[in-house]
Amino acid sequence: MSVEVKEAVKEEVKIVITLKGHGASIGIQKPDCDPVLSRVEGDLPAVLEAIPRLVEEAEQKWQSNPRYPECETDLTPPSPPTTRAEPHRTPSAQPPMF
C-alpha cells in the first residue's frame, strides 16, 4: 500500500470486490459514511491496481458529503381503497330465467 493510501485511510475502510466476467464491482465503505460503488474493467491485477485510487476518491467524496441526502418525500403508504359490500340478497322464490 502506498504512502498516499495509508495517509488517506486513517479509519476502518471496508472494500468488497465482486468479480464477474472481465471486470469487477467494487464497494467501499467506512463507518458513518454511505458506500461508494464503482465498476472496473479488467482482470484481477487490474482491479487491485485501481483500489488505491478508488479509496482516495471515496475519501474525497466523504469529506464533502458523507451521507446521501435525507429523503423528504412522504413515504406513508396510501390507504387501501374502500370496497362497497354487496347488499345481502335473499333468494327469490322464482328461479332465474338465464
Walk me through this protein's architecture.
The chain has 98 residues and is of the alpha+beta class. It has a domain at 3-64. 28% of the residues lie in helices and 20% in strands. It has 2 helices and 3 strands. The protein has helices spanning 3-8, 44-64; strands spanning 14-20, 23-29, 36-41. The chain has a 3-stranded antiparallel beta sheet with strand order 1-2-3, with helices on one face. A hairpin with a 6-residue loop joins strand 2 and strand 3. The longest helix is centred in the middle third of the chain and has 21 residues, at 44-64. The chain is elongated, with a radius of gyration of 29 Å.
Structural class: alpha+beta
- Spatial order of strands in the largest sheet: 1-2-3
Summarize the biggest pleated sheet: 3 strands, antiparallel
Shape: elongated
* Rg, Cα atoms, Å: 29 Å
- Sequence of secondary-structure elements: HEEEH
Average residue pLDDT: 83
Q: Stretches where pLDDT falls below 50 for ≥5 residues?
A: none
Please tally the helical runs, counting DSSP H or I stretches of 4 or more residues: 2
How many DSSP E strands? 3
Helix content: 25-40%
Quote the beta fraction.
15-25%
Amino-to-carboxy terminus distance: 85 Å
Feature tags:
alpha+beta, 28% helix, three-stranded antiparallel β-sheet, 98 residues, 3 strands
